[in-house]
């Protein structure tokens, strides 16, 4: 986790053996990252050996909360991306079980870049797991191995699972030494065995002990799985084996279809009852670790070890997976995926006992033979996924119960001729291309389940077909057919089905259907009067999502453009619905009174949007005109209890209420509500309801909203209070369970409850009530508020973890104190505090309080120009009265303070890891020298746009050591008065081992040197981990580090060590003449990229004495470069005295070089540029180009191809390649070259042959030129076939140009 927090690291890999616990570990890391808010979003997806990229993309997009699954931008393109750059959304992406680097690369390229909903740029950190380190070595910067459990850890894990909380029940004496010790330290073996033995009697333990004694460690895992399997019922065993055949991330609904077809549940005629049994079996198998959760409650997963155990041990000889053999007589189940292996299926199969067959056929060139199914008399379940052909022999399967042709390309006529002879119970055509449902389906008199989901081309269902399916229990048509014929409206369209046909299905209990109609009154069928067990019904053309927001089994989405008559059948459906979405509601003023007189007794989730006439959700029926008839006690505080009890409850089980764009809604509840109304409400969200002045009265809040945990009120322009004080209800607690509160863009909001002259969100009288359990509070755009809490209330926020306040133009302080008595306010659990765009904010607290944030890890204070300090009457932003001992992230922006920390603030920064300071125009320095030692955990330091800053550290005129041992990133930008890092006249020493890995210094006009030392002795400074350095717009800078007696004109002198520097970018450094000398080139061991632009005075990159050994050093330096960019350098005469240039293979144009079928790209060594290996027969064509500005004038150069040959090269014997060199477009050299033969084998003038180099590679000379400054343009090198033949087995490193 620490590695992932380093800015220089983007990808981390975790590897280890199967079953070692990699998935368990990364899931725990996901949980921890979410709990500690280390990232904005954490997403996890499983890749596996044969990844389904669209599925993985969809999972990632869903985890990110995005609608789109690609990295394409919106129509606004680059402007949206540029806008998103202003805000960054940190994402931790966990990819579990990666097998192929190529697949990961494809997935990485398709990751979304922008969250368009929040206009934010997605910044990824990626965590990978794999069984092989080799897979991760080129994909991640760091790799960590997962080691087996220690013996003590084995035992503790076993005890935790095997025994319940009652520790008084002892485990047998032999459990640890004889049983657990054989688990080979694999968590999967420990957990499986522990769950198998949990709550078993001593007899079972002894039997297990005797059985496992004879097994070796190698056999033990399978034996524990077998033991766990053996303890299951026959029903669970067969469910488990079928799950193993179905593989990873399989759907429980598919398992149901197969189980019904196999006839597992004798005596069970109901699909709903069978579903309950399947769900119960899956749950039991998950509890015993034989199955795993997949992140979705409608799917299941399993460990590869468990699956392999089931296929190759328990079911060996009875099932077949992913291959076809000639000996299949004993096989009962076959599940073939990936186009049934490598061979074609036989013309006829010999599988007399086969009952289950599944084939995923994605290759249309391998059709299923016509007679393939002719000998499968016992087949009960047939699944053909993504098939391009349906053989006619399927019609011979008289015992077939389930037929699944999902995602297949089907001919309607052929499909009809096949199914009319079958006796199916389940027919699934999910995602098929059919445009018309074959009429022969009416012959399926025993059909119980018909799934037509995602058949988005289906336009015709012949009239009368559905009504003949008398046994049909479940019909699924999500995202499918919507062309229903309305009775009495479009009678002329006799070709299509009508909704009234569904009335004639007496056994129908589950339905998913979409209906496009202009008016609800056109639906008048008695189907809606039935007690359907499950349904998803969408009425109207504006609904797109079929998924339930909360997993409910009865969901209705209804667009109403007119009132519903009192006798309309849909009203019966409303009474039974669990999740209801309403849109339009034309003519409806009161939702409850006009839609359900029984007040929605079973409704759990209610969403109402775009209803322009709605004034109230519920109105009490006990009223006279506009006045509620009530009886009150003398004090006027309490309503007569009899009045409340006589009112029937409304929404007694409602958990979620969402109201959007109800322009005329004045109140949610008008008048009294029954005693249990809203008693289960957990969440309420209100948005764009501009007539609403409050959500609820205080009496409702006290008596009814006893479970309310979340309130969101957004963009309601007239909202004044959240709770209105109606002087009723006594002194009961108000919203005592409230956890989450978001108030956004409410310009008239005065208070949460009981407004007063001082515009305070929370007054003292609710301090012990509504805020007692508050965990997250977001306030944005509430311009009336002057403060949030009183000091007494703030002391009661013991559960608050997240506080965010933005764009409140009148906010002067967050916490106000009524007196000047020193108080102590402690936020024990506050983890995140964000204060942004508060233009009038003066203090966090205006009193004399001590404010302690014990758990605060992230603090942002942005664009608060009047902020004087967290506490009033202080000279610093944070004085000794402000404490946050666990702070890790601090960002300060656009604050006009002169000093951030008080000298005694050391304890508050000891855990700080990331510090960002920007736009603080009055800040002269960041911290004092004496504070530096407290920043021992600092990893990132970025300072920008601080116009008055002269130094980062104020040395305080005394000797001190400056050390940031964990610093990973340093960026200084737009600091026009900055002269040096350390400010002062004293002798400051820099720690010799800083570990910065990214350093950027930009727009510092006064800086002459990056690091300065006036120590009399000569100091050497080393940056052993620095890999990226950017120096931009430093017009006076001449050197990186200046020590005494080293007044040289070079940017880097011999006192600077940069052994891991890889990327160096220099721009607009006007006084720079030279980069370094050849004598120190050897210290740049890993250099890869050099970019120099707009440096007006630079004359030469490297000064060389032209000694042979120094020339070789220069050649080595430039030969390692992947990138060399030189731009706008008017005085540059040469790069060095004598240099060579390597054009790596990636910089060459190679025939079909981007096609992985022809070329394999890899790194022979992690520090080596990528090379290209020809895998198959290729046409040898390579083109290289280099600017002559990179060459030294008046120098003769030779060009070489650097290569080697693979184990079995082919196509090179006696076959020349033509090499040509062009300078400025004119040919200057041309010859033949050979790549394999010795010179003695070929006779020909001008032919050149390969020579061995000192680095185990070969080179062949391609040509020779003499470069003069007058001969400008580009130098181009061409290699092309002379003979039309093919070659393979050559590995290309690149082209090298070096002086003779």
From TrEMBL:
The keyword Nucleotide-binding applies. GO terms for molecular function: ADP binding; ATP binding. It holds the Pfam family LRR_RPS2. It comes from the Eukaryota. Residues 560-716, 765-868, 887-982 form the Disease resistance protein At4g27190-like leucine-rich repeats domain. Keywords: ATP-binding, Nucleotide-binding, Plant defense. GO terms for biological process: defense response. Residues 5-166 form the NB-ARC domain. The keyword Chloroplast does not apply. Belongs to the disease resistance NB-LRR family. This is NB-ARC domain-containing protein. It comes from Rubroshorea leprosula. The lineage of its organism: Eukaryota, Viridiplantae, Streptophyta, Embryophyta, Tracheophyta.
């Amino acid at each position: 986790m620490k590695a992932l927090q380093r800015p220089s690291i983007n990808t981390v890999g975790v590897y280890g053996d199967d079953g070692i616990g990699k998935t368990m570990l990364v899931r725990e890391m996901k949980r921890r990252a979410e709990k500690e808010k280390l990232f904005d979003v954490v997403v996890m997806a499983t890749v596996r050996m044969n990844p389904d990229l669209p599925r993985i993309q969809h999972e990632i997009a869903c985890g990110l909360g995005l609608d789109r699954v690609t990295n394409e931008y919106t129509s606004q393109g680059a402007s949206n991306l540029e806008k998103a750059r202003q805000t960054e959304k940190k994402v931790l992406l966990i990819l579990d079980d990666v097998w192929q680097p190529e697949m990961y690369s494809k997935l990485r390229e398709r990751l979304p870049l922008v969250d368009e909903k929040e206009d934010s740029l997605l910044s990824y950190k990626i965590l990978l797991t794999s069984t092989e380190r080799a897979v991760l070595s080129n994909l991640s910067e760091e790799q960590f191995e997962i080691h087996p459990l220690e013996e003590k850890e084995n035992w503790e894990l076993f005890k935790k699972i095997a025994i319940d909380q009652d520790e008084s029940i002892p485990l047998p004496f032999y459990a640890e030494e004889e049983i657990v010790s054989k688990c080979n330290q694999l968590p999967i073996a420990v957990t499986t065995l522990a769950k198998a033995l949990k709550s078993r009697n001593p007899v079972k333990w002894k039997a297990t002990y005797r059985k496992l004694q004879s097994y070796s460690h190698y056999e033990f895992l399978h034996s524990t799985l077998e033991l766990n399997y053996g303890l299951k019922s026959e029903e669970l065993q067969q469910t488990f084996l079928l799950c193993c055949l179905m593989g990873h991330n399989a759907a429980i609904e598919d398992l149901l279809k197969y189980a019904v077809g196999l006839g597992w549940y004798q005596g069970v005629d109901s699909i709903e009852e069978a579903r309950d049994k399947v769900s119960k079996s899956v749950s039991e198998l998950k509890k015993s670790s034989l199955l795993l959760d997949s992140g979705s409650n409608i799917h299941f997963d399993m460990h590869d070890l468990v699956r392999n155990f089931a296929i190759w041990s328990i079911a060996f000889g009875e099932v077949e997976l992913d291959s076809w053999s000639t000996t299949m007589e004993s096989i009962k189940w076959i599940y073939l995926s990936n186009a049934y292996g490598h061979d074609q299926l036989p013309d006829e199969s010999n599988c007399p006992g086969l009952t289950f067959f599944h084939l995923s056929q994605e290759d249309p060139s391998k059709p299923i033979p016509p007679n393939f199914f002719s000998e499968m008399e016992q087949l009960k379940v047939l699944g053909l996924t993504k098939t391009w052909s349906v053989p006619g022999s399927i019609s011979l399967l008289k015992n077939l119960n389930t037929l699944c042709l999902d995602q297949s390309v089907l001919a309607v006529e052929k499909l009809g001729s096949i199914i009319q002879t079958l006796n199916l119970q389940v027919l699934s055509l999910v995602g098929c291309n059919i445009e018309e449902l074959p009429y022969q389906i009416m012959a399926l008199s025993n059909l119980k389940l018909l799934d037509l989901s995602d058949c988005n081309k289906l336009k015709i269902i012949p009239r009368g077909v559905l009504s003949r399916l008398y046994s049909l229990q479940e019909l699924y048509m999500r995202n499918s057919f919507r062309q229903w014929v309305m009775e009495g409206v479009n009678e002329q369209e006799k070709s299509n089905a009508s909704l009234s046909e569904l009335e004639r299905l007496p056994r129908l209990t589950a339905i998913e259907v979409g209906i496009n109609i202009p008016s609800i009154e056109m639906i008048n069928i008695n189907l809606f009067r039935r007690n359907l067990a499950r349904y998803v019904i969408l009425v109207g053309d504006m609904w797109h999502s079929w998924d339930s927001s909360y997993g409910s089994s009865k969901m209705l989405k209804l667009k109403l453009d007119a009132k519903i008559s009192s006798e309309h059948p849909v009203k019966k459906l409303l009474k039974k619905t669990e999740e209801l979405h309403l849109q339009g509601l034309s003519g409806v003023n009161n939702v409850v009174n006009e839609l359900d007189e029984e007040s929605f007794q079973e409704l759990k989730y209610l969403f109402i949007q775009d209803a322009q006439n709605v004034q109230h959700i519920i109105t009490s029926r006990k009223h006279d005109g506009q006045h509620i008839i009530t009886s009150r006690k003398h004090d006027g505080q309490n309503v007569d209890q009899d009045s409340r009890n006589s009112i029937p409850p409304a929404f007694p089980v409602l958990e979620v209420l969402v109201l959007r764009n109800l322009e005329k809604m004045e109140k949610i509840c008008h008048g009294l509500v029954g005693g249990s109304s809203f008693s289960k409400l957990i969440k309420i969200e209100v948005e764009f309801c501009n007539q609403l002045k409050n959500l609820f009265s205080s009496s409702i809040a006290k008596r009814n909203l006893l479970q309310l945990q979340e309130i969101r009120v957004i963009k309601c322009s007239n909202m004044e209070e959240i709770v209105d004080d109606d002087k009723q209800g006594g002194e009961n607690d108000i919203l005592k369970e409230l956890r989450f509160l978001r108030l956004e863009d409410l310009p008239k909001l005065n208070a949460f409850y009981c407004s007063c002259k001082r515009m305070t969100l929370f007054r003292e009288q609710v301090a012990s009530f509504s805020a007692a359990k508050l965990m997250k509070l977001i306030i944005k755009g509430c311009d009336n508020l002057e403060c949030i809490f009183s000091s007494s209330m703030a002391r009661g926020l013991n559960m608050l973890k997240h506080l965010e306040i933005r764009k409140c133009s009148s906010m002067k302080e967050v916490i106000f104190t009524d007196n000047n008595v020193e108080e102590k306010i402690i936020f024990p659990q506050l983890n995140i505090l964000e204060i942004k765009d508060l233009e009038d904010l003066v203090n966090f607290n205006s009193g004399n309080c001590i404010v302690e944030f014990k758990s605060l890890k992230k603090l942002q204070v942005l664009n608060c120009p009047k902020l004087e300090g967290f506490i009033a009457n202080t000279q610093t932003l944070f004085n000794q009265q402000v404490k946050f001992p666990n702070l890790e992230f601090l960002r300060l922006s656009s604050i006009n303070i002169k000093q951030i920390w008080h000298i005694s603030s050391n304890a508050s920064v000891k855990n700080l890891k990331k510090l960002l300071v920007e736009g603080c125009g009055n800040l002269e320095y960041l911290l004092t020298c004496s504070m530096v030692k407290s920043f021992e955990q600092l990893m990132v330091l970025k300072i920008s746009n601080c116009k008055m800053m002269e130094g980062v550290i104020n040395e305080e005129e005394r000797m001190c050591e400056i050390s940031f041992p964990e610093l990973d990133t340093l960026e200084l930008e737009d600091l026009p008065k900055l002269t040096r890092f350390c400010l002062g006249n004293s002798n400051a020493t820099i720690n010799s081992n800083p570990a910065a890995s990214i350093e950027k210094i930009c727009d510092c006009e006064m800086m002459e040197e990056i690091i300065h030392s006036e120590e009399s002795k000569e100091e050497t400074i080393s940056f052993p981990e620095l890999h990226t350095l950017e120096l931009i717009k430093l017009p006076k800078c001449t050197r990186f580090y200046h020590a005494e007696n080293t007044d040289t004109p070079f940017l880097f002198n011999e006192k600077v060590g940069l052994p891991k520097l890889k990327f160096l970018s220099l721009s607009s450094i006007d006084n720079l003449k030279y980069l370094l000398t050849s004598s120190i080139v050897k210290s740049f061991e890993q250099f890869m990229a050099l970019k120099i632009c707009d440096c007006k005075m630079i004359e030469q990159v490297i000064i060389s004495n032209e000694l042979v050994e120094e020339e070789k050093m220069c050649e080595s330096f430039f030969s390692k470069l992947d990138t060399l960019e030189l731009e706008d350098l008017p005085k540059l005469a040469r790069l060095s005295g004598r240099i060579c240039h390597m054009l790596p293979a990636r910089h060459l144009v190679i025939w079909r070089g981007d096609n992985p079928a022809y070329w394999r790209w890899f790194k022979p060594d992690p520090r080596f540029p990528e090379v290209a290996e020809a895998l198959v027969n290729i046409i040898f064509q390579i083109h290289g180009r280099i600017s002559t500005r990179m060459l030294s004038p008046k120098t003769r150069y030779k060009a070489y191809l650097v290569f080697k040959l693979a184990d079995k090269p082919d196509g090179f014997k006696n076959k020349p390649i033509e090499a040509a060199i062009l300078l400025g477009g004119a040919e200057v050299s041309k010859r033949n070259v050979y790549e394999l033969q010795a010179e003695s084998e070929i006779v020909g003038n001008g032919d050149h042959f390969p020579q061995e180099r000192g680095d185990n590679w070969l080179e062949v000379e391609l040509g020779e030129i003499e470069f003069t400054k007058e001969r400008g343009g580009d130098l181009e090198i061409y290699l092309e076939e002379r003979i039309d033949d093919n070659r393979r087995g050559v590995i290309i490193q690149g082209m090298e140009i070096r002086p003779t």
